[in-house]
């Protein structure tokens, strides 16, 4: 059977570069650069953009100006601009900023929960339930994340069953979708299949997304494994920006440009203009003075000696 026969015909990208990407940048990022990146992503056709995080600013200083970023972007009709909200204080800030959607983020390991949220998993879920109730009251959709689904930087192996029970709780409290994060990019396609096989016993595929970091170079094969199992919402970060401040050595998410190239090759619709996306990714890398981690952009610029 041809590979494409088993795949979805359309996929949706959740662009996390302005949040997951920039949160890990060591240097200062100007508000103008952030806003320019978010606008450029929307203009390239990205319809779901995680534009900031209303977390404790002493924990993640790069996200401290998220309210200013939301105020300064040019909102494109049809685009959802979302933000991370770890607690009710974060939700109130997101609401005031006009976020279209918020995201709560649990971990599949106690050790990571403590490092990332300063509390255990149960306490984090109690806080999230408050956020979801407030979001429901304001008609704001809530996305749930689970970090460390394929391994934890502090405690190692994570069982699919643990992820399933947290996913069930996030959905039961009112999340419309759960994004499965391989936060440290250690999983392989076989691990991804095992995890999804467990979750799909109980959760409709429409409620799952994958969020693959590329530390071990496995992200695209993990995404292909997920597509083969019907998952069609994929988180990615332009130019492969990022990492996780609480997972030392973890590199960025899979580059959005590389996911788009894969989807194009598989004949899966996505609605994003690859050239505009590459230009947006290169511009933020130039401004940050860092290497572009998109293999597609690297190949393209080696061939043409320029972007665009
Ligand atoms: C959960 C907390 C807030 C607990 O942080 P805490 O320090 O335990 O909070 P607290 O309740 O004890 O409050 C301490 C101070 O922080 C303030 N505060 C408290 N909350 C907020 C807020 N929302 N916004 C602004 N200020 C806040 C609060 O008002 C107080 O201020 P003070 O009285 O001292 O002046 C903290 O641990 C935190 O912000 N964690 C988030 C860390 C983070 O952003 N990590 C990266 C994102 S997760 C990730 O990258 C994984 C993901 C999603 O991408 C998926 C994947 O890759 O797998």
Fold topology:
Elements: E1 12-15, H1 17-21, H2 31-43, E2 48-53, H3 66-72, E3 80-84, H4 88-97, E4 101-107, H5 110-117, H6 121-137, E5 142-147, H7 160-173, E6 177-182, H8 189-200, E7 208-212, H9 219-228, E8 233-236, H10 256-266, H11 274-288, H12 295-304
Parallel strand pairs: 1-2, 1-8, 2-3, 3-4, 4-5, 5-6, 6-7, 7-8
Helix pairs in contact: 2-3, 2-11, 3-4, 7-8, 8-9, 10-11
The structure holds 3-hydroxy-3-methylglutaryl-coenzyme A (HMG).
3-hydroxy-3-methylglutaryl-coenzyme A is lined by residues 20, 23, 53-57, 59-60, 84, 86-87, 89-90, 93, 105, 116-118, 145, 147, 181, 183, 211, 244-246.
Structural description of this entry:
The protein has 308 residues and is an alpha/beta fold. The chain has one domain: Alpha-Beta Barrel (TIM Barrel), CATH 3.20.20. The protein contains twelve helices and eight strands. It has helices spanning 17-21, 31-43, 66-72, 88-97, 110-117, 121-137, 160-173, 189-200, 219-228, 256-266, 274-288, 295-304; strands at 12-15, 48-53, 80-84, 101-107, 142-147, 177-182, 208-212, 233-236. The chain has an eight-stranded parallel β-barrel, surrounded by seven helices. Helix 9 links the parallel strand 7 and strand 8 (233-236). Helix 2 (31-43) packs across helix 3 (66-72) and helix 3 (66-72) packs parallel to helix 4. The longest helix is centred in the middle third of the chain and has 17 residues, at 121-137. The radius of gyration is 18 Å and the shape is globular. The termini are far apart. It binds 3-hydroxy-3-methylglutaryl-coenzyme A. Residues 20, 23, 53-57, 59-60, 84, 86-87, 89-90, 93, 105, 116-118, 145, 147, 181, 183, 211, 244-246 line the site of 3-hydroxy-3-methylglutaryl-coenzyme A. Residues 20, 23, 53-57, 59-60, 84, 86-87, 89-90, 93, 105, 116-118, 145, 147, 181, 183, 211, 244-246 line the site of 3-hydroxy-3-methylglutaryl-coenzyme A (HMG). It catalyses: (3S)-3-hydroxy-3-methylglutaryl-CoA = acetoacetate + acetyl-CoA. Its EC number is 4.1.3.4. This is hydroxymethylglutaryl-CoA lyase. Pathway: Metabolic intermediate metabolism; (S)-3-hydroxy-3-methylglutaryl-CoA degradation; acetoacetate from (S)-3-hydroxy-3-methylglutaryl-CoA: step 1/1. Keywords: Lyase, Metal-binding.
């Amino acid at each position: 059977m041809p590979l494409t026969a088993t795949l979805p015909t359309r996929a949706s990208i959740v662009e996390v570069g302005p949040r997951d990407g920039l949160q890990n940048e060591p240097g200062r990022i100007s508000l103008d650069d952030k806003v320019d990146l978010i606008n450029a992503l929307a203009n390239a056709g990205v319809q779901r953009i995680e534009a900031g995080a209303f977390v404790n600013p002493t924990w993640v200083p790069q996200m401290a100006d998220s309210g200013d970023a939301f105020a300064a972007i040019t909102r494109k009709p049809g685009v959802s601009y979302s933000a991370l909200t770890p607690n009710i204080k974060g939700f109130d800030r997101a609401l005031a900023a006009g976020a279209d959607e918020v995201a709560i983020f649990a971990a599949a390991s106690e050790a990571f929960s403590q490092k990332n949220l300063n509390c255990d998993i149960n306490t984090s879920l109690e806080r999230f339930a408050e956020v979801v109730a407030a979001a429901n009251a304001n008609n704001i959709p809530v996305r749930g994340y689970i970090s460390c689904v394929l391994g934890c930087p502090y405690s190692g192996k994570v069982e699919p069953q643990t992820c399933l029970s947290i996913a069930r709780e996030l959905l039961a409290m009112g999340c419309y979708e759960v994004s499965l994060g391989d936060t440290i990019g250690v999983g392989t396609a076989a691990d991804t299949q095992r995890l999804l096989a467990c979750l799909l016993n109980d959760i409709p595929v429409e409620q799952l997304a994958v969020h693959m970091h590329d530390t071990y170079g496995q992200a695209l094969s993990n995404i292909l494994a997920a597509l083969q199992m019907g998952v069609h919402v994929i988180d990615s970060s332009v130019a492969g920006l990022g990492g996780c401040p609480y997972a030392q050595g973890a590199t960025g998410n899979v580059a959005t440009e590389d996911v788009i190239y894969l989807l194009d090759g598989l004949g899966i619709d996505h609605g994003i203009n690859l050239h505009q996306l590459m230009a947006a990714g290169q511009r933020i890398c130039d401004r940050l003075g860092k290497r572009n981690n998109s293999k597609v952009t690297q190949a393209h610029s080696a061939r043409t000696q320029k972007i665009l």
